[in-house]
Amino acid sequence: MLPATVSDADDADDADDADDADDADDADDALDPLSAVTHPDPYPYYRELATHRPFFRDQRLGLWVAAGAREVAEVLSHPDCRVRPPAQRVPPALAGTAAGDLFGRLIRMNDGAAHAPLKGLLMPLLAAIDPAAAAHRAAALAELIDLMAADTALSAERINGVLFTLPVVTLADLLGLPVAVDCATAVAVAAHVAAFAAAQSPLADANTVQAGALAAQWLGNWLANAEPATGPLPSLHVAAHAAGIDAQAVSANTIGLLVQACEATAALAGNTLLRLGRGKVPSGTSPEELVAEVAVSDPPVQNTRRFLAADAHLCGHDVKAGDAVLVLLAAASCIGLADGKCPWTFGHGRHACPGDRLAQALAGATVRALLARGAEPAALARAFRYRPSLNARIPHFC
Ligand code: HEM
Questions:
Q1: C-alpha of residue 353 to centroid of ligand 1, in Å
Q2: What CATH number is attached to the domain comprising 107?
Q3: Cα(222)–Cα(199) distance, rounded to whole angstroms?
Q4: Is the dihedral of CA 138, 144, 150, 152 positive or negative?
Q5: Whose C-alpha lies nearest to ligand 1, atom 43?
Q6: Mean pLDDT lowest for which of 19-23, 379-383, 394-398?
Q7: Among 44, 191, 199, 356, which lies 20 to 30 A Cα-Cα from 263?
């Protein structure tokens, strides 16, 4: 999951921002950079922002907004732009829970030297997973764990379940975790990963946060007893131990990989089904080609955030320590690929997604598995809504 963290920056009085306030007030009332995430068609709005308001202050939201491709890249590369507010390593709702403890150890949620050694081990681990082999394994697991039993109708609910289960279970299996022992284990692991991911949303209510804390505890216990004999985890633990890295940080980030694979990959596969259902897909286009296209044109992760650790000059503006920047990946995406190669939805710079190719392979395999079992994209596209979210565009089929 790619949590959108709530800004606690309170800098509405900043005189430097006054000129930019008009920009926000002029904005289309029906849309703002957060409601755009789940709007039926936010792309004309994003294109307008990327072209005419590439970096501005939205006074109503209390956020700076980066929408132009150059500005998005500048924010994500700036040394003072951090993934968490410097004084708040963990969202307040999660603090003091098992979910908060896990969250605080994630490389995704930390900057700085302390996390660099573990990151240096995790990146090559992910890079070494062959996307084609991952897709192949996903196809086999769809059969093996009976996620889509032939004797049961492929209802919308079941399809939602598959989107949130198959990519996570496949990644866990590729890591060597005993997840595919039976269908119940696979479904339980995926459900707990999804519950932990959901608890990180700023929209999470008290029950969701509590379920996330229980899920984090469950996942920690499961992992402690999992003892992978195959896959890359045993050598990760050995290398981490040799480098003096805390074993708990390794476990937390192992769970973190599954969490990263959860909502965003479900969204990528779901948005690909929608694209198929809406038609106008050239015949002969493979699910994999379509996934790559959807990652650019209807991206699952629409924005991320950065928090200023110091006063800085950013994108031509003076910004202050504590300010928050909403980085509109989906707006930059209207202009093309990042670096001319990777879709913006996978981020950019120090925290760019190391799972981009793997995620696209898993999304393609999930779409393929669903189509092979009779999923009907046109029917799905007629009855869906987007899950409430401030950063991810995840369809829920009804
Ligand atoms: C197998 C699936 C996936 C895995 C294992 C994975 C893993 C990760 C990890 C470990 C990070 C943190 C990197 C760091 O902080 O240095 C990350 C970041 C990120 N991932 Fe993924 N990811 C997956 C799927 C996806 C998908 C499907 C998307 C979107 C389409 C996505 C978008 C992102 C973005 C935008 C970031 C950076 C967030 C930021 O800079 O604030 N990921 N991913």
A1: 4
A2: 1.10.630.10
A3: 19
A4: negative
A5: 353
A6: 19-23
A7: 44
